[in-house]
Amino acid sequence: MQLDENLTATHQSFVSHLECGLDRDSYPADQIHGLSKAGRPLLVRYDLEAISAALTKEMLARRPAGLWRYREFLPVRSPQNIVSLGECETPLIRLPTLERGAGQLIVKDESRLPTGSFKARGLCMAVSMARELGITRVAMPTNGNAGAALAAYASRAGLEAFVFCPEDTPEINVREIAAQGAKVWRVNGLINDCGRIVGEGKESCGWFDFSTLKEPYRIEGKKTMGLELADQLGWTVPDVIFYPTGGGTGLIGMWKAFRELQTIGWLGEKLPRMVAVQAEGCAPIVKAFEAGTRHAELWPNAHTIAAGIRVPVAVGDFLILDAVRESGGFAVSVSDEAISHALAEVANREGLLLCPEGAATYAAWQQALEAGQVRPEETCVLFNCASGLKYALPPANAHIDCNDPTAVAELAARLK
Ligand SMILES: *Cc1c(COP(=O)(O)O)cnc(C)c1O
Contact 266/234 with Cβ under 8 angstroms? Predict the structure, then answer.
């Protein structure tokens, strides 16, 4: 058995401090932190100059692929604290028959990660850091995939995990959370209602709040999507990235990655335009983007088949909107009907079964091309964030009677 040598390498972390995403106040590293004093997400800062002196692209290229290849850009100080389930490099899959011009249309297929979603990147990092900081009991609200990843990594690390999901969370998610050793409850509300329960229980139940962006390290895990993408493209970036946006960790993380790479000179001037994709039934970021505001209002009666992006209010709203605007990108919403149609089209024509959230990015790309927000010669990357197999699929009910002697002949006649 070949163990990932990234996990056994002794390495030093280059974290210098943490910083409030809103007012830039500084917080010491190596201590347990939730939100900043301003009630906003904390961002991990590194001594980028030291990274740039210690690491070359060539050194990196000699390491095994996967999340821990980028360890200098990550917060874990001691390799013994790494909790890993084999976080692979996810493939870039072109969709040649769906392209409309000279630009490539590429899916970064995150479904290949442990627990079948990119939540593994964030929770792998957050749980490793929980272990490093001596946290033993954690809780989170989830629409499904984050809870599943937390359950898996927490069990592996020996942490106790408590998970709260909306009642209509996909059944498979609720069961995989339970199967992977977490305590899970269904809640008669949405993810923000689940979040309230987690907040309320902090003192009395003695757990640490692992909600999206309420602890600083999930962003760092999700940041590896940006590091890995740039690495896979030979330290270049695509023209546009379409990202299905719920809490926004991935979009914020990737933008942070690109900025860090730019600072050390591994990327040039050009960064991708970041597009936040939401569903028409839950589009608080799109609304705020269009209104020109820095914060988003709670979206009432949120609904969409794309459970992972059904997030009516995001504590990192301004970080999403800042990144989208700085990048020259935009925010766009698509209907559930367009999502279903996109899912079927990509599966039928390219053999790639996306999750509904991933399908939303394809629908958004089509919409953006038609609106002239993206040009056919631009290379676009769509994020497929989870396995399509984790969601209910359309029924397939054709039946054949094995005792009917004419059945195959009838089938053959129909195929003529
Ligand atoms: C969580 C999730 C999202 C949203 O990710 P954020 O980074 O929190 O915005 C999108 N798609 C799927 C499948 C998810 O599980």
Answer: no
Q: Which CATH code for domain 119-209?
A: 3.40.50.1100
Residue nearest to atom 3 of ligand 1 (CA): 308
In this structure, are strands 42-46 and 15-20 parallel, antiparallel, or unpaired?
Answer: antiparallel
pTM above 0.90, yes or no: yes
Q: pLDDT (tens digit, 9 = 90+) per residue, 25-68?
A: 999 999 999 999 999 999 999 999 999 999 999 999 999 999 99
Q: Does any ligand 1 atom lie closer than 6 A to the CB of residue 128?
A: no
Distance CA 248, CA 242 (A): 12
358 C-alpha to center of ligand 1: Å? Answer: 9
Contact between 254 and 227 (Cβ < 8 Å):
no
With a 6 A CB cut-off, is 386 part of the ligand 1 pocket? yes
State the distance from the centre of ligand 1 to the C-alpha of 144, rounded, in angstroms: 10
Which whole number is the average pLDDT over 172-192? 95
**Mean pLDDT calculated for residue range 75-84:** 95
Strand partners, 43: 19
Q: Look at ligand 1, atom 12, and give the residue with the nearest C-alpha.
A: 308
The answer to whether domain 92-100+103-115+218-390 and domain 119-209 are alike in fold is yes
Chosen CATH of 92-100+103-115+218-390 out of 3.40.1170.60, 3.40.30.10, 3.40.50.1100, 2.40.110.10: 3.40.50.1100
- What does the pLDDT look like over 226-278, one tens digit per residue? 999 999 999 999 999 999 999 999 999 999 999 999 999 999 999 999 999 99
